[in-house]
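Because showing beats explaining, we let one protein speak, sequence and C-alpha cells together, and leave readers to judge.
___
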Amino acid sequence: MKRSLSITLCLLICFPLLAEEPGEMPEVGIDLKASDAKITQDDRDHWAFKKVERPDVPQVKNDHWVRNPIDAFILQKLERKGWKPAPAAVPETLGRRLYLGLTGLPPTLKQQAAIDANSDPEQFDHLVKKLLASEAYGERWARHWLDIVRYAETNGYERDGMKPNVWRYRDYIIRALNDDVPFNQFILEQLAGDELETVDSRTVIATGYYRLGPFDDEPADFAEDRFDQLDDMLNTTSQVFLGITLACARCHDHKFEALTQHDYYKMIAIFNPLTRPQSGRSDLDLPAGSVEQLANEQKRNGEIAKHNSNIDSINLAVALKRIQDGTSKLDEAIQKALKTPAGDRDSDAVKLIASKRNEIAADADSGLNDEQRDQLSQTKQAIKALREETPDLPRGYFFTESLENVPETNLLVRGKASSPGPVVQPGVPTVLTSVQPDFDNPTNHTTGRRLALANWIASESNPLTARVLVNRVWQHHFGVGIVRTPNDFGVMGAAPTHEELLDWLADWFVNEGEWSLKKLHALILSSNAYRMSSEWNESYAADDPENNLLWRRPYRRLEVEAIRDSILAVSGQINRKMYGPSMYPYVPSDALDNHADKQKIWPAFNEEEANRRTIYSYVKRSLIVPFLEVLDLCDTTKSTPQRIVTSVAPQALTLFNGKFVNRQAEYFAKRLETEAGDGSAAQITLAFKLALCREPTATELQVMTDFLATETKKFREEDADGELATSPEYRALVQICRVIFNLNEFAYPD
C-alpha cells in the first residue's frame, strides 16, 4: 500500500512539470555542487546504504533445529513470539520442491525412488549439489534473470522490429549460471564486457544487456527518444544491480529518496557514449569479438573477397561467351545485363548480376575448360582454408562505443532534451559513496566509463549489490524476499523482515561464498527453514497473516515456464535441445488474423521444435504466446523483479480446454498405456507418480477409478458402431490426464 501511494504521489508531483506550456522559459543557474551537498549523513545512514557488516549469529533455545546460521536468525524471531517452526516436509514433497525449484522439472520415477530411499538431511544436501550441477539449473534460473533485465526478441512499438541474434544473450546467461561465473564477474561482463582486459565473443555478447529494452524505430522526436533509451539503460541498471529508483530523478530531485537530478545525469554520462548500430529503421547485429579478432576477420574477409572476385571474373567471362554462342540457359534479363559492358551497367543491372551469382556460376559450369576448373578449385580451397584458419565470429546484438567524438552530457532542465543545462561528468549517486570512482581511464577503443561503473558496483565497498542479489535468490526460493520490494531498497521500499539475516547473507556471499551463486543456493537449501512444510497454524496466521516471520513454507504457484515444462516432461514429449535460435510455440490462428503476412509474424508450427523448454520460446512484444500470457508471463517492457500472480477464469479454460494441454494429455495417456498396461489402478497410480511425485491415497484412487469407468462407459455408448480411431478406454484415460494436469497440486507443489 505504501509503495502504491508513493508512486501515485510521484506522478501527481511530476505531471505539472511534464505539462510545460510552449514558450515557458526553463530554469537556469543549476548549481551541481549545491545539489550534491543536499545529501546528509542521515541519508547515508539508511539501513541499505550503510556498509555491510556481518552480525553475530543469535543464540536460540531450540538449537537442535539449527542446521546453519539461517535457521538461527529465523528461529530467534519465532521464539520471541513463543512460536515453533512448521514440521519438516515429507521426503517426496521436499524432493519435488528441490527439483522444481532448481531445474523447473519434476523428478523422474528413478529420481523419485532415490529420494524415497535416502530421506535423511545429508542425502538431500547431496541432491542439491547434483541438481546445481545439471544443465537444467541454468535453464531454470536464467529465466529469473531475463525477467529483471526486460528480455525480449523484438523492439515493441508499432513495427515491433526484430532484435537479430539477441538469443545469444539468453544463451550467455544460461551458460554463465551453469558455469557458476562469480557474480562480480557476471556484473563486469554484462556492463563492460567489451572493456575488460580480456575480451572475447562471449563477453561482448553479454553487453547485449543494454539493448534489451523497447525501441521506437520511428520516434517523433529523435533527441527525446535518445534520452528515453538512455533512461531505459539507467533505470534497469539502477534497479537490477543497486535496487534503487534513480530514474525518478530525470526531471527533478527524487521526491522521496536521497537521489538528486545531478545523480541521475552523472549516471547518464556513463552510458551516453554508447551507439546503437542500425540501418535506417532496422536494428543491426554485429560480429562479436575483441578488437584483434574483429581485425583478423576483416582481413580474412578482404582476402576472401579478392578470391570471390576472381571466381566471378571466370564465371562471368564464360557465361558471356555462352551467351554469345547461343548456348546459355540464363534468363533473358540476366543475359541482357551481362552483355552490357561493366562500365555502362546501371544500378539495377549490377544488383541483378549480384543476386543471380549462383545461377550464373551454374550456367557457366558446363562451359569451363580444364584450366579454368583448376583455377576455380584452387581458389575455393584457398577460401576454405582461410575460413578454417579464421572462423566466422558469432553475430551478437549490442551497442558499440568509440573514443571519437565522445558526446558531452547535459543535465536536462525538467528532463527535456530541448532544454540542456550544465555539463555533467560521469559519476555514481552521492549517497552511496564519499569517493567517486575514476571515470577518466579509457581503454584503447572505449571511454572505460562502464568498466569503472561495473567495478564499483561489483566492489565489496558498495553496500547494495550483495544485499540486492541475496534478496533476489531468497525470493525465488521462498516466494517473497527478505525485502518485499526487490527493486527498491530506498526509504520508500519495504523494510527487511530479517535485517540481520540479510546482512549476514550478503557478507557471507562475498567473503565466504566468493560471489558464487551455487554456493549461495546450497547454503539456503541446506537450512531447515527452507525444508519446512507448508502446514497451517491458525493462531500464528491471525497474528502474522503474511508469514513475515517465516513460521511455515510459503504456499505459491509455479511460474508458467515450470508449469508448461512439467506438462511436457510428464507427457514424455519434452525436447531437451539446448541453446540456439528460439522456437515458436503454438499460437491460435485468430491471434494472427490482423496480420497480412501470418507466416512472417509467426512461422508455421513445428511440434517437435516447440516442445523445447519454455525459456527457448520466441518472445515477441506485440504477440505474447496466449498460453504464457494468461498464466502471468512477466511484463517484457521493464524490469520485473516479481511476477504478478493472478487467478482468473481464462487460466482454467486454457488449462482444461486449451489445445496444448489437451494434446499433451493425449501423449500422457499413451505413455500410461505403454508403461502401466491396461489396469486402471496401475495407470492412475503411475499418473500420480509422474505428475505429483506421490502415490494416490485410497480415496483418490477410488474416485479416479470410478471416474475412469464412468467416462469409458460414456465413450463406448457414443461410439457404439466402433467407428472412431481410438478406443473408449483411451479417451477416458485422456480425461483422467486432463484432470491431473489441472489439479491444484500440479501447479502448487507445496
Observations:
- Residues 181-277+410-457 form one domain.
- Residues 291-325 form the longest helix (35 residues).
- The radius of gyration is 31 Å.
